[in-house]
Every structure is written in structure tokens, then in C-alpha cells.
From TrEMBL:
Positions of the HTH cro/C1-type domain: 20-48
Sequence intervals crossing the membrane: none
Superkingdom of this protein's organism: Archaea
Listed name of the protein: Helix-turn-helix domain-containing protein
Organism in which the protein naturally occurs: Halobacterium bonnevillei
Amino acid sequence: MKFIEEVVVDEFLPTFRSLLAADLRARALTQHEVAELLGVSQSAVSKYAHGDVTVNDDVASDERVQETVERVGEGLASGDMSQVQALVEAEVLIRQLSARGDVVASLHEEAMPALAEYEGDFRVHDPDSEVRVRERVLSSVRRGVRLLEHASGFATLIPAVGSNLVECTPDAAGVEDVAGVPGRILDVMGRTEIPADPEFGVSVHVASMLLSARDAGSSARACLNIRYEDDLVADLKAAGYEAVEFDPKGESTPDALGPAVGQHPDADVLYQTGGFGVEPIVYLLADTAPDAAEMARDLL
């Protein structure tokens, strides 16, 4: 694991300081004066001047880096720019270069190839970045899955079609924004079998049911399907959950949930009692995957 800040320290800063030191020396400043302005030792300035510090060519050749070096160098040399302003200018440049597809971000992706899996524009250190949001969802699903895996007897709640535990991003627009277990959670000889680590876009059915419930007015972000029994629904109601029955309509489409959720947007439990070729199922809705898993575990 390599932080983007490490890329800044290892690649950007030595290059930026080398270029800025060279610019200031070219403006007739002494090594002592350059060292004072940059907040480094004279020996460091000497190393910069003699090329003893490795320079990243991608950073050095970037026009914004060159423009900032020239502007900061001129400002520091003339006294028109304070060290604080110079620092701010450099920090702004770092943030620009850290955007997806930019120099620092690309160097970070080379060091952390897994980042390349994410699409769109993002900054790793942005608290609202796509990476952080989606990784938090995956982490939440992993916690929920572990709860189910270690819940004694959960296998007895798995329907014949299998279960899945899913959670979506706050602004989910489709199945690709919903994380779940690849394949399904299975009952293998009385043992809960988790086939693989959670991923996005791998659960079409349960994810679609969650999205349908949200489209109809539910605020839930997680869903777990379990087998149906009258006693299970009764226990959920006794525990204070709002349980609503819906017409499966063959469950060929998750739109079957719409009318029920539309009338009961705060429902925690949605269930159907089956039909021709349709297995009866209970869907547990919750704020997070661990919350949905806890709902199921409380039934054991």
C-alpha cells in the first residue's frame, strides 16, 4: 500500500525543489539565501545544484510545474511573495496534479495498480471521492458477510435460490453501484458458504430489488434475502419491524415491489408468499449491510 502523499514526497517535492533552487540560483541568490527561502540546508541546495537529487521527468516537464516554479522563484527573489504564499502556491499545484489522470495521480496508479479499476475523475484524498465511497461500501458488505458467516444457524435461513447481502452507494443509479457477493450465499450441507469477496455489480436480483425499493421511496441502502416462513415474519413484526407483503407477479421484475413500498416507504421487511414457480422470499431492508445481517441473526 502506497499513499499518494508518499508519491508527492518521493517524486514531486525533490523535483519541485530542484527546479525552484535552480531558478533562484539563476536569479543570483546565494546558496545560503536559497536555503533560507526553501527551508532546507545549504548542503541540500548544493545537491540540487549539482544534480545529485533524482528528478522525475514527468513532473519536471509539466507546463504548470514550470510556470509555478518561475512565478514562485520570481516572487521569492524579489520579495513580492512571502514563504507562506509560496507554500500555498505549491500546495495548490499538488492538488491540481493529484486529479485523476494527472501527473501525481498517474504516478500513484503506477504504484497502486488497483486504483486503475475506478472510473471517472477523483482525488484519493478527497473525503467524498468515488474511491472512498465505494471502498466504504465494500468494507460494510464484508462486515455484514462475516456476521452471517459466523452466525450459527444462518444456513437454515438461506432459500433454495440462495441468499445475497448487498449495499449501494448513496447515489446509486444502477446495479453497478451496488456491492454484493459474487454468485450467491449458499447452504452447503448446513454450512454458510461465501463463494468470493464482495464486488460491485455482481448481484442482479437482490440489487435490483433494493434499487426498486429505493425508487419507490425507501431510504434503505442494504438488503438481504432469506427464506419465507410465517413464523419468521411474525418474529420480525414482534421485534418492531414493519413487514409488508407484496405480489411477486412471478418476480420476473423487481417492479413488483413498487406498489407495496410506495404505500409503506418505511417498511423494513418485504415478503411474498410464493406462486407458480416462485419460491416465497423475505427481503430485509436496512441502512447498512451489517444492520441487515443483524436482523437475520436475531431470528436464529
